[in-house]
Fold this protein.
Amino acid sequence: MTLDVDFVRSQFPAFDEPSLQGQAFFENAGGSYTCGQVIDRLTRFYRERKVQPYAPYAASEAAGAEMDEARRRLAALLGVETDELSFGPSTTQNTYVLANAFRRWLSPGDAIIVTNQDHEANSGPWRRLADEGIDVREWRIDPATGHLDPELLEPLLADGNVRLLCFPHCSNVVGEVNDVAAITALAHAAGAFVCVDGVSYAPHGLPDVGTLGADIYLFSAYKTYGPHQGLMVVRRQIGSALPNQAHYFNGETLYKRFTPAGPDHAQVAACSGIADYIDAVAAHHGMAMQTPSMTGAAVHGLMRSHESELLQPLLDDLASRNDVRLLGPREATRRAPTVAIALDRPAEAAAAELAAHGIMAGGGDFYAVRPLEAMGIELTKGVLRLSFVHYTTQQEVDRLRTALDTVL
Ligand SMILES: Cc1ncc(COP(=O)(O)O)c(C=O)c1O
């Protein structure tokens, strides 16, 4: 079964937008296009239901029901209970709140592990716990490849003092897919919980978080075809153990405990459109399954195989050049199509040249300052990042490869 890319693109209004014609989009890791289902729901909410939700009048009931629908359907796709999924303003905000909860739950002498492969969102807030006497240990990447080796994790877990391990499902510059299930099993065996940043992974297929076993799994809807929201799975065991961060009278409701800000009603409701989109892709390909998480897994597989097929020739091109340094694995199946390359000049200038060829891409550090520094990349030059998702076509990748040939 191959992905019907024409069908997929017909679900994204950006591809019919006149001002975007002739532009191939390769900065999806910064934020994806939004599917029509989300845009329609957002518009409907603002037109018809923009009232305080959960009150006993029709518009309000519809608003509340749509917000509940988003949580219920996305939680089911992710293989977790409805109240284990919550929405916050962004992943950065969500980790900030979670770190604050851990600040009170941990005791001096307890240890946590962070990596230097993470985006700062899943790194800085945790590292600040050192100010409270928490022993913060760093699981370090290989400076040459950016790889996180689980063998180097084991000694960090060995003394049994680690309460939490924070790591990415996939880094936004290295692109390698970390084996979340295996790493989580190591942490659990040592008595530690895990917090996984899935922001760079989820756009390539929603994972079954239940099966992966992660205690906390975070991603950002605006990079996953939706509105600007951070989604956060907090499994019941850790969620009920951590101190409530919301109004005291909301502490009994799991999905409210780590979202002190009032929810953005319209955007939460519009997240149902992500589930609509995944269901539409499944139905179109005759893949609707018995359970939402099985449907999600089928769509995930379809997206990943299309992406991998397009990615390998791009990786081969880049790996064969001696004037660029390709970060992360050279095999498409081991990584996401988020490809960062270091050049001998500022990457932003190269991105500007690509724009003249109708390629939308970016250059800089992408808030992945620690991994870039660890790999010896000059921050003043940064990296050129070329990232795509399943709606990208072979023609667009060919066009990128041709443009890169000229620009590099
Ligand atoms: C891997 C990764 N984690 C976390 C974040 C932060 O997400 P947000 O913008 O929702 O705070 C980003 C944003 O670029 C990211 O790429």
User: Anything to note?
Assistant: The pocket of pyridoxal-5'-phosphate is lined by residues 90-92, 119, 121-122, 168, 172, 197, 199-200, 220, 230 (CB under 6 Å). The mean pLDDT is 97. The chain has two domains: 5-33+294-407, 42-275. The first helix runs from residue 5 to 10.
